[in-house]
Specification:
alpha+beta; GMP Synthetase, Chain A, domain 3; 5-stranded antiparallel beta sheet; 4-stranded antiparallel beta sheet; 8 helices; 28% helix
Length: 280
C-alpha cells in the first residue's frame, strides 16, 4: 500500500489516502472513487510530496487513512453530472429558506453525494446558529439526509479558486497547512517585518504559508544567539544588537557604543557560560 494526496469532492480539501499500487495506478486528470466518512465519493490526484512523518504514521496507524477504490466508470460519471445539477438547484432552495428563517448564515456551496444518500450544505457564520428547523424543512423538500456544516474563516476561502499575492493558488485550497496553529511568533522567528496587512490573507487571518519554512528557520536559528544576549569579546562585555541570518553575521556593541561585526563561526568559538566576573 502507498499514500497519495487526493482532492475530495464534498469539501474540496486535499487529504491523504492509501491505495494498492500493485492493482491501481493513479493518474492525473482522472476521477477515482474513494472512501469518506459520508460514504463513497469522487476525487482526483493532487500532485504533492508526501512527508516522511505521514509515512511513519501510516505504518503505525493505517486505519486512519481512507482508501482509493477504483477509477470512475462512465455510468458513475453520468450520475455525478446529474448530482451537480441537483446541487445547483439545492443551493437556490437553501438560500431562499435561509432568508425565510432569518438566519445569520452565508451559504457557501451545496454538495449532493453521487450515491444520493446525503446533501451537504456548507455555510459560514460568525456566531453559532440554531438551524434545526431549517434542516427539517430541507429534509422534507429533498427527501434525503441533510447535513449543515459550519466552516471557519480559513476554510471559507478554500472553496474559491483564487490566486494569492505570490502568484500561486491559495494554500488553503491546496495542502491543508492551516490545520496547524499559526502565530505572529512564526513571522518573528523568520525575521519578517511585522505588518498585519502584508502577513494576512484574504480571510483576514495570518497567511498559511508562514508554516512552510517555519521548521527550517527554527533549525537554522538554533545556532544563533538572541538579540540582547551578552558576549565576552576583546576583554570586554558586548551585547548582541542585530543578526544577519543570510550572511551569518552578528553585530555587537559595548557600553562605549563601539560596534563590531563577527561571524557565526567566531561567535560559536566565543560562546561559553558567562559569569559575573566578566570572563568566559
Amino acid at each position: 500500500m502507498n499514500l497519495i494526496y487526493m482532492r475530495v469532492g464534498y469539501n474540496k480539501e486535499v487529504e491523504l489516502f492509501q491505495y494498492d499500487e500493485k492493482s491501481l495506478e493513479i493518474k492525473p486528470n482522472l476521477l477515482y472513487i474513494i472512501e469518506t466518512r459520508h460514504g463513497r465519493d469522487m476525487s482526483y490526484l493532487e500532485p504533492a510530496a508526501v512527508s516522511f512523518e505521514s509515512y511513519q504514521e501510516f505504518q503505525t496507524h493505517p486505519e486512519k487513512f481512507q482508501k482509493v477504490l477504483k477509477p470512475v466508470s462512465k455510468e458513475e460519471f453520468r450520475k455525478r453530472n446529474e448530482m451537480k445539477t441537483k446541487s445547483k438547484e439545492a443551493f437556490e432552495v437553501g438560500v431562499k429558506k435561509i432568508k425565510e428563517h432569518n438566519l445569520a448564515i452565508k451559504l457557501i456551496n451545496v454538495y449532493c453525494f453521487f450515491e444520493g444518500n446525503k446533501i451537504l450544505f456548507n455555510f459560514y457564520s460568525e456566531t453559532r446558529v440554531d438551524f434545526r428547523e431549517l434542516v427539517k424543512e430541507l429534509a422534507g423538500i429533498f427527501k434525503t439526509r441533510i447535513e449543515l456544516h459550519q466552516v471557519g474563516i480559513r476554510d471559507f476561502s478554500q472553496f474559491f479558486n483564487q490566486i494569492g499575492i505570490c502568484g500561486r493558488p491559495f494554500c488553503c485550497s491546496t495542502i491543508k497547512t492551516h490545520k496547524k496553529s499559526i502565530s505572529l511568533k512564526m513571522a518573528k522567528e523568520q525575521n519578517l517585518h511585522i505588518n498585519a496587512s502584508k502577513l494576512s490573507g484574504v480571510c483576514g487571518r495570518l497567511m498559511c504559508c508562514l508554516n512552510y519554512e517555519y521548521d527550517a528557520y527554527k533549525e537554522l536559528y538554533k545556532d544563533f544567539p538572541e538579540i540582547g544576549d551578552t558576549l565576552y569579546f576583546k576583554k570586554g562585555t558586548y551585547f548582541i544588537k542585530e543578526i544577519d541570518y543570510d550572511k551569518k553575521l552578528i553585530y555587537i556593541f559595548n557600553e562605549q557604543e563601539e560596534f563590531e561585526e563577527i561571524s557565526l563561526e567566531q561567535y560559536q568559538k566565543l560562546k561559553k557560560p558567562y559569569n559575573n566576573n566578566g570572563r568566559n
